[in-house]
Design goal:
Shape: elongated
CATH superfamily of the domain at 78-107 and 334-365: RNA polymerase II/Efflux pump adaptor protein, barrel-sandwich hybrid domain
Largest sheet: 6 strands, antiparallel
Helix content: 40-55%
CATH topology of the domain at 78-107 and 334-365: OB fold (Dihydrolipoamide Acetyltransferase, E2P)
Strand content: 15-25%
């Protein structure tokens, strides 16, 4: 976060640096290299011609300055190792923490339940192992023998199949179901119709006779208590019952009654077939397996567990112990604590937020691990190297300077800037960094290095406006011993008002016709400070 802010600020400074550097370049060149014409003013050849003394480029050293800001050397992400909901966040950005301080806490209810389950699994596995290791008691062996006898008896029953009594009962049930179906579906016979009609007619005659007897005494006030009244009621009921019997017998069976009869026949047939098919293969196999299991348990009790069984039980116990250890670790990791002293640079979660294992929750930095991040112009970045020494000055602490060394040089330029600059990270190596804080404006002055001799042999610094182009050939007008002549040159890098050229015709002491914007005496640089106009905040390249 701090690095991003410093980079954003630095690109603004870089734009200013370009303009300031161009203005300051020529003056710094002259001040450091001692470049100035004889005396304190340019030499004239005539009233309107000025000359400037050239200087060998191989005699000039290079020192580079670049502006930026102080940042933390490295931020350490603190990761949570469990899932949960944040319940504690006792820190804020800028807080100093010590080793063991709580940074983030999550809800532990689920984790505590996991520990409880893991402990139960360990206890269960331990009990199973103990049972295998302990000799069986007399009661245990007796129970196992009884279970084996029961399993053998069941096997014998299955092998014997159905008994004659079971088969006879099944056949009888089938016959009864078939007879009932015949009764339901058969039509009423003539004899049955005659019998039902006779019963109905008899009941009608009895009812009419009882009615006549009742009519003879119905004038009496106590007629309801007479035998004739009771006889009429009985005869009437018997007549209605006979009439209902006749109607039911004459009515055909319903579909439900027929289907019920058919279902009864089917069930009886399946029951009989099932008994006749015994013993079935699956029932026989199941009974045999029960016998084998009972026999194995009895043998184990008598002989003790085998080594394979003991080993398997021990492995199961070890797995349960590992699961318990993991559950306890997860419970412990529900509280994220600092593993080293540091300053909180950001918090990535809030109370009530759900977090996942592996998520970054806090960023910490070592307050003693500070760097200066500076932007170096493209013309200067090639002069720098990793581990190159530098001197750091701070606007906030003008009375102090700090030693540093180059840690990293960006492989590509910073995007989104009008000038081409490269980010360079410089470590602050001083043990005493009291008062230095991230965000402070910093200027890095890199240790001067001798220009590459192969690149500067035969190279000279001349005013840029002294070079003339004619038919693609570059020349300068030279004054040597008061006599002017034209020298062919090959132009190189621009250094402010100056231009690097190579030529075999130039020699030390030559003057060329041209001019520069400023001439400095040797003490001017000390008055305006390093970097020329703009002070320490400006970056300049001083050839």
């Amino acid at each position: 976060m701090e690095k991003q802010k410093s980079r954003k600020w630095l690109w603004i400074v870089g734009v200013v640096v370009i303009f300031v550097g161009l203005a300051a370049g020529a003056t710094v060149i002259l001040a450091q290299a001692g470049l100035r014409p004889p005396g304190s003013q340019p030499q004239s050849i005539g009233d309107d011609v000025t000359t400037v003394q050239i200087r060998a480029a191989s005699a000039v050293e290079s020192a580079t300055q670049a502006s930026g800001s102080i940042v933390f050397g490295a931020e350490k992400p603190i990761v949570i190792e469990v899932d949960g909901t944040v319940t504690d966040l006792p820190i804020a950005v800028g807080d100093m923490v010590e080793t063991g301080d709580l940074l983030v806490g999550v809800d532990t209810v689920t984790l505590e339940r996991a520990v409880t389950r893991a402990r139960l699994d360990v206890q269960t596995s331990q009990n199973q192992l103990d049972q295998l290791m302990d000799p069986a008691s007399t009661e245990d062996i007796a129970d196992a023998e009884a279970n084996l006898a029961s399993a053998k008896a069941n096997l014998a029953d299955v092998e014997a199949g159905a008994t004659d009594a079971e088969l006879a009962a099944a056949r009888a049930s089938l016959a009864a179901a078939q007879a009932k179906y015949g009764d339901v579906t058969a039509d009423l016979s003539a004899d049955e119709q005659t019998k039902l009609k006779a019963s109905l007619e008899k009941a009608r005659v009895n009812m009419e006779k009882a009615q006549r007897d009742y009519d003879e005494i119905k004038w009496r006030g106590d007629v309801g208590a007479t035998p004739e009244s009771a006889a009429l009621q009985t005869a009437t009921i018997e007549y209605e019952a006979a009439k209902a019997d006749y109607a039911v017998a004459a009515e055909p069976a319903s579909d439900a009654e027929v289907q019920s009869s058919v279902s009864s026949i089917r069930d009886a047939q399946e029951r009989l077939a099932d008994l006749q098919a015994q013993p079935k293969p699956n029932e026989l196999a199941s009974a045999e397996a029960q016998v084998a299991s009972a026999q194995s348990k009895l043998d184990t009790l008598r002989n003790g567990a085998s080594q394979l069984e003991i080993t398997a039980s021990e492995l199961q116990l070890q797995q349960a112990l590992v699961a318990l250890e993991e559950a306890l670790t997860n419970l412990q990791e529900a509280q994220v604590k600092a593993d080293s002293p540091g300053v909180v640079t950001s918090t990535e979660v809030e109370v009530g937020e759900s977090v996942r294992s592996g998520q970054v929750v806090v960023m910490l930095a070592n307050p003693a691990d500070l760097e200066a991040e500076v932007l170096v112009a493209e013309v200067d970045v090639a002069t720098l190297a990793v581990d190159q020494r530098a001197e750091i000055s701070l606007d906030a602490l003008p009375e102090r300077t700090f030693s540093g060394s180059v840690l990293r040089i960006a492989p590509k330029s910073e995007p989104g800037q009008s000038a081409v600059n490269y980010l360079v990270e410089v470590a602050l190596n001083d043990a005493d960094l009291n008062g230095v804080r991230p965000g402070m404006t910093a200027v890095a002055t890199f240790e001067a290095t001798q220009r590459d001799q192969a690149a500067t042999d035969g190279a000279w610094l001349v005013p840029g406006n002294a070079i003339q182009q004619t038919d693609g050939v570059s020349t300068v007008r030279v004054v040597r011993a008061g006599a002017p002549f034209t020298a062919v040159v090959t132009p190189g890098a621009v250094q402010g008002d100056w231009r690097l050229v190579t030529s075999q015709e130039l020699t030390s002491g030559d003057e060329v016709i041209g001019s520069v914007s400023t001439y400095l005496s040797s003490d001017v640089e000390a008055m305006i400070g390093p970097g020329g106009p703009g002070g320490p905040g400006a970056a300049a390249r001083n050839p």
